[in-house]
Protein: Undecaprenyl-phosphate alpha-N-acetylglucosaminyl 1-phosphate transferase
Organism: Alcanivorax profundi
Amino acid sequence: MEAAGTSLLSGVFALISLRMLMPFAVKFRLVDKPDQRKLHKGAVPLVGGLSAFVGVFLGFMLGMPLTSGYLIFLLCASVLVVLGAVDDARDISAKFRLFAQVVLGAVLVYGSGDSLESFGNLVGLGVIELGVFGPLVSIAAVIGATNAFNMIDGIDGLAGSLSLIALLSLALLFSVSDGHEAGLALSLGLSCALIPYLMANLRIPPFKRRIFMGDAGSMFIGFAIVWLMIQGAPLEGAAFRPVTALWLIALPLIDMVAIMVRRARKGQSVMNPDREHLHHIFMRAGFSDRQALMLISFVAMLFASFGLLGEFFQIPEWVMFAAFAMVFALYDYALGRVWRLLALFRRGWSTKITSRLKVQS
Ligand SMILES: CC(=O)N[C@H]1[C@@H](OP(=O)(O)OP(=O)(O)OC/C=C(\C)CC/C=C(/C)CC/C=C(/C)CC/C=C(\C)CC/C=C(/C)CC/C=C(/C)CC/C=C(/C)CC/C=C(/C)CC/C=C(\C)CC/C=C(\C)CCC=C(C)C)O[C@H](CO)[C@@H](O)[C@@H]1O
Ligand SMILES: O=c1ccn([C@@H]2O[C@H](COP(=O)(O)O)[C@@H](O)[C@H]2O)c(=O)[nH]1
């Protein structure tokens, strides 16, 4: 009941704050202007993520009895959101942002005392306990998830939809386990808080003006999701196994790791922004942004459903992990050759069309 009330409050506060923040977007330079890499039209207000954060923050403050862990989470998330908003307005260097993420990850993990305790029985030889490495692995996971959701935010609706898929799956897992009321409230609350943003982002009536989430929003979502995953997968009283978490955010995670590997192979900095992410590839292959959104979200839903089925039917963790590693290997292989494959298809199509025309004439 507390979770339902908190979620409702989060959604309502997010809607109100979206309306209130819009007039200030231009004044505080919180607008995204097109450039060589950013191909949208006009200056778009970057207030979607801020409204979701305000919604969750107020919803939690009013609706939930706060534990020290969740208080530290909200404090770190506030700093991250302010940092993201400053970056949205004035562009902060990627190195400084990475440094700030490490510090915030460390404050979250050491301050709350909560960290990833094990990887589970990933290779079938018994549970891999992390012991003293738990906090360090957790900080890496915080940085990983925070950047993964930032990187996927490149076409309308994508970051919002993939976040909703992960958050609603988490909410389902928390709802069927005992002792995870706060996790349920945060996952449902953030889902509700994202709805006004997502509707405006996709210009679903009554929203007419398009908005973006901004780095403030995408980093906050990744940060919240990894916190929920750490909360949900302790050694005692877990709501799910660690490997299940991987499937819930499979696409953003795999896209980030694969693009880092590709950049490193080319001798580039892994922090070099480009237009080589999965959504860019779909669009260069000729899909519209809406088609790319539908296809990628569908695949993300399949992955999350596979993770949930694995959890509910207790498919061995090593099987789930081996399947994940195979998906990663396939993804990396296909995307490394995507232009050659597409050129091959195109040549195939044009040869077929030419020969059909010849037959007709
Ligand atoms: C730079 C860029 O790309 N930019 C984009 C972007 O542009 P934008 O303008 O928005 O942004 P900027 O350009 O300004 O750039 C922002 C960039 C920065 C701030 C700098 C930082 C950027 C980086 C690239 C650095 C990232 C650094 C890292 C340290 C990340 C690496 C970390 C990891 C891979 C995490 C590893 C840790 C784990 C524990 C893994 C699990 C991870 C989780 C997140 C989740 C879950 C938690 C659990 C409870 C589950 C744990 C369970 C397990 C079983 C764990 C064990 C599993 C593993 C170790 C597997 C993980 C590994 C894989 C997935 C690999 C494959 C696996 C196998 C082979 C098995 O956006 C623009 C728009 O799109 C774009 O144009 C631009 O380019
Ligand atoms: O909902 C969205 C979100 C982003 N975009 C486009 O992607 C870039 C990404 O910006 P970053 O600052 O690199 O994160 C953004 O400028 C838009 O051009 C979008 O179209 N829709």
Summary: The longest strand covers residues 118-120. The chain has one domain: 2-360.
